[in-house]
Amino acid sequence: MRAGRHKYSLAWAILLALGLLAGCGQGGAAPAEREITDMAGRTVAVPAEVVSAFPTDPTAGICLYTLVPDRMLGWNYALNDLEKSVILEEYHDLPVFGMGDSINYEAVLAAGPSVIFVAGAIDQGSIDQADRLAEQMDIPVVMVSSDLTDTPAAYRFMGELFGVEEQAELLADYAERTLACAAALDIPEENRLRVYYGNKQDSLETAPAGSASGQIIDMVKAVNAAGAELGGGNRVAVSLEQLLAWDPDVIIVNGEPKANFSGGAAARSILENPDLAPLRAVQSGRVYGTPSAPFSWIDRPPGPNRIVGVRWLLGILYPDQCPYDVDEEVRTFFRLFYHVELTDEALAELYEGGLQREDGR
Questions:
Q1: Distance between CA atoms of 308 and 294, rounded to whole angstroms?
Q2: How far is 199 from 208, CA to CA, in rounded Å?
Q3: Of the candidates 93, 104, 191, 334, which lies 20 to 30 Å from 73 by C-alpha distance?
């Protein structure tokens, strides 16, 4: 019995030693997966290291490009020349996977992303859609909120997801300070400017008060001239007569990116239109085109690109009360979020609705 116990103990000691040696050889073998809670409150098992992500929508693409461009598998559409004028050249020719119903999921599967990345409104419908997509693709799907006020939280979540907490905090902090600056601005109700925000080539599509696309107007202590009486919808077509009746103090126009029609071109069109000459905004010259390089500063898409729009729009509306230098804030934003340094010439052209890189590209 004593010899049997000795052999058993010796065998156990050998197995234990081998196990310890194997553990040392593997460096403590990190877990293959970890669980995270995304911004929709969903518990998702993701790889221990998320090395690549597929964005399902343009807002998600912008989020990824601003923080982890090297982990983004591709775009949702082919970049236009204006976008390429700011986006770093090495990311111009990433694969185009499509968006919405046109996503090429076979190509996505072939690319093998660590996660599928969704940015948008968080509601039961979007949650159900994300769950279905995860089941169909057998790839983890993570969700972040595209609400402008959630931008700091979105970057902090992304920092945890991708293991880049330090860089994410720089972006989150800038967004947080920007939103706090807007919230702290003390503009009495009677002094708040009435703003009309126009889309399309004729600028006769607007974002009603309370809509996601009109969120930035409410945030900068302005009054949305369109009000909320237009009913539901994020962007609503209006008539020339409605615009004349509203008679806003300031007009901000986005143009039509899909037609390569800039905000600057849309602003000039309004200023030169004799039918709109009676508008007080036209008479005072307070018609502005939204800078759109590389993405619109007000909307389209409703992503972190709007953070610089908050800085710019506050300076446009209330220059005497703006507690910062707008040009310097734009430079800082582009350095942090778009990875470029703006020259004086580039900044001037940016405000005009286009941008040339210092090297001429």
A1: 12
A2: 12
A3: 334
Q: How far apart are the first and last CA of the chain?
A: 85
What is the rounded CA–CA span in Å between residue 145 and residue 59?
Answer: 10
Helix (H) or strand (E) holding 128: helix 124-137
pLDDT at 22 over 60: no
Q: Hey, what's the torsion of the CAs at 67, 69, 75, 81, to 10 degrees?
A: 100
Q: pLDDT per residue over 61-103, tens digit each?
A: 999 999 999 999 999 999 988 899 999 999 999 999 999 999 9
Q: Write down the residue that tokens 């020719």 correspond to.
A: 93
What pLDDT, on the 0 to 100 scale, is given for residue 29?
55
Does residue 153 contact residue 41 with C-beta atoms inside 8 Å?
no
By C-alpha distance, which of 204, 250, 251 is closest to 230?
204
Q: Is the pTM of this model over 0.90?
A: no
Beta strand residue intervals within the chain, DSSP E: 33-37, 43-47, 53-55, 115-120, 141-145, 194-199, 205-206, 223-224, 236-237, 250-253, 287-289
Helix/strand/coil for 67: helix
The pLDDT of residue 30 is 55
Q: Among 292, 282, 220, 227, which Cα is nearest to 256's? A: 292
Cβ-based neighbours of 47, under 8 Å, separated by 6 or more: 32, 33, 34, 114, 115, 140
* Contact status, residue 300 vs residue 199, Cβ threshold 8 Å: yes
Tokens (6 digits) for 230 = 């237009």
Determine the pLDDT at residue 225: 94
Distance CA 67, CA 158 (A): 8
Please state, in angstroms and as integers, the Cα–Cα distance from residue 193 to each residue in 106, 169, 200, 223, 335, following that order: 50, 34, 23, 6, 31
CB proximity list for 7: less than 8 A, separation 6 or greater = none
Q: What burial class does residue 236 get, using C-beta atoms within 10 Å of its C-beta: 0-12 exposed, 13-18 middle, 19+ buried?
A: middle
Alpha-carbon gap, residue 164 to 290, rounded angstroms: 32
Q: Tell me, what's the pLDDT at 257?
A: 79
